[in-house]
Fold this sequence. Notes:
Oligomer: single chain
Largest sheet: 9 strands, mixed
Number of helices: 6
CATH architecture of the largest domain: Sandwich
Number of strands: 48
Radius of gyration: 30 Å
Number of domains: 4
Amino acid sequence: MSKFLSLSVMALAGVLAVTTAAPGQAYIGFVYPAGAQQGTTVQIRLGGQRFDDVEKVIVSGTGVQAKLVDYHRLLNNQEVSLLREQQRDLRRASTGKDAEKDPKKLAEIRQFLARIDARVTGWQNSPANRSLANLAFVEVTVAPDAEPGPREIRLATRSGVTNPLVFFVSQFPESIRKPLPTTPLPILGKEELAERKRPPEEAEVRVAVPCVVNGQVAAGELNYYRFEAKKGRRLVISTEARKLVPYIADAVPGWFQPVLTLYNAAGKEVAFNDDYRFQPDSVMYYEVPEDGEYVLTVSDALFRGREDFVYRISFAEMPFITSIFPLGGRVGEPMKVEMKGWNLEQAQLALPPTGSGHGIYHATAAKTGLVSNRVPFALDTLPECLDQEPNNAPSQAQKVSLPVIVNGRIGQSGDWDVFQFEGRAGQTVVAEVMARRLDSPLDSMLKITDTAGNLLGLNDDFDDPGTGLNTHHADSYVSAELPSDGTYYVHLLDTTNQGGDEYAYRLRISPPQPDFALRVVSSNASLRSKGSATVSVYAIRKDGFDGEIKLNLKDPPKGFSGTPISLKGQQEMVRFTLRTDLVDSKEPVPLVIEGRATVGDGELIREAVAAEDRMQAFLWRHLVPAEALKVRVFNPSYQPPVARVAPPPRTAKTDPNKKEGQPKFTKGQVAGRLRQIEFLYQNWLLTDEFYLDKVAECEAVN
Length: 702
């Protein structure tokens, strides 16, 4: 575990938390379904906590519109009792003669019953995870020309903005399973009582290929999908699950791990996948041997399940990239990149646009209008070369001049790649592998030796906290000071003794390149009118950089400012203060924090990447990058207009049966009851008559 990730044990009190949302902060735990096809409109639900005053929905990018339809807060026992009482009254009224004579009144009664039934049915007094039990219902409309791929979706409340989760735009028709009801809390020794009793008609879904299926897995459950396929079809069956909810705090290993099994019409297993290389999300390639029906089953590897065990699975003859080479190139220079995978005949690879600077981008392949999966592609400013075989030993070492980035492959099991360079006494040399961070399955090990074979540096795994979704830091990093002038060697191998075309790498051999990256946590902040708030800014220092980093707000919009502050020496985190002189920003505003540092005769300027602090498996913490830092200024004294105006109250009546000395309700208890009644009334769950009766009861008890 890196020094930077020591935040994983900074506060053991957080170990038992089921989310890492800050106190009072609205939080989204899942989105279902987590995507929609181009040119369609679909209703989705977002489960989370503390978004009682939700106002709107924000989706990144263009071509996707979303609007809030409804919101269901987790009800308490007293509120549900009120609803059931109202439910009984309405059912009696709906069968009465007065209702039969008045169609308008009967329609109104049925509307109330439908709303109450939706809230009471499936209600759980003790949810398995309370932080998922509040539901926002959202209507999403995707334009026909919306770019396929992932977006970010958030909810904006009157007092802030939620964390983002992923929402995909797809190119295929979508099938959506009935949403899971709120999962009850399992009782130790009686866990089977909490298992979902899925109706038999919901167990299997018939779909037509190509398509995307959307589902949620309950504990102990398998989902079945039946489809027809013709001989010769080359199907890619690709899952998105961990991509949707990267970390589940109260689950081990910390995410939904889907398992796919494919059966033919005779019930024989013909394909199986429980992960794709080192990624938990399964991918299966299957060339159909004969016409017929096939059944795909989906489950969790440990048969866990809950509302946030959400998945999307694509069935299609779509292009899919399994590897590219090289994994990157030099900024400003033409690049020739080969790709391998499935259904890539005549596909065109799209690389980062001309003019792109240093960084990691995503490349895709397009074929007959279909866009493939995304693969990382790195750009750097150092000179580059290709690995040249044979170079398996110092006697065959490939000579390189520093600085350089070598693009190579561990081509087969047992392969070593050895590189020779000339060094000077006292010179510091860095060797760093970029492979796993670029979706290569290579699990590298590096060492630096002199001509006598003396070891100067060795590393297997090096933590990079900048990759928030990477839980196996398999890339290697070595820094060594050379003892004398002479010839030195960098040795690279795969520690698992694997190899192949997909085991590509980018190996940097150079003097130290002092640099830093910044993360700002969280990706949302709330400021009271003319007030302030703080966010945490983390520094990820590279190649021994220990200089001062001066932080400031970059080009702040009108009404916003930041208090300049610095990260000193080896300091890894500082609190940055955001200020505003606005009363209300009305809309969330994106802000950018930047850091400046002097290195040699130059200045480095780096923007802080917004991130979410997420917990994995009760303990480990990760900073998951987001697209932007969204800030909302809110007026705490603002009271929204009442949605529903109640009729004049009835005169409270004294209870003739009430005896002297009988305990009275406290003012606090009466006030709480009135708040519950008002909440249900404003949400159109109580009729005027029932509301007035209950208010009168409260007035009469004291």
